[in-house]
Design brief:
Radius of gyration: 25 Å
Number of strands: 2
Strand order of the largest sheet: 1-2
Distance between the termini: 63 Å
Oligomer: single chain
Largest sheet: 2 strands, antiparallel
Structural class: mainly alpha
Order of helices and strands: EEHHHH
Helix content: 40-55%
CATH superfamily: Winged helix-like DNA-binding domain superfamily/Winged helix DNA-binding domain
CATH topology: Arc Repressor Mutant, subunit A
Amino acid sequence: MTDRIEINPAVMQGKPVVRNTRIPVELVLRKLAEGATAEELMDAYPRLTKDDIQACLGYAADLIAHQDVFVVDPKYDALDSIRSRSREQEVLDLLDGPH
């Protein structure tokens, strides 16, 4: 993790923030995603620097790079296999007769 981003349970409920501020990384990323420029962010948050903004982007990139992704075929319905097994068991129970 970059030295500009910190996670402290006593600050912003442990969300990642720009070090020595209460500015959440999430806020910086959302503002950038909404189209804010680095200059606009620095005007709105005077303690924020361009290096801090770059650190937020780097932090997000690192999180994504280390994230496991599981692709699920949308045509596959996991419940279908459960339903099939349940129907098979019902048939077997009927064939087996009452106990």
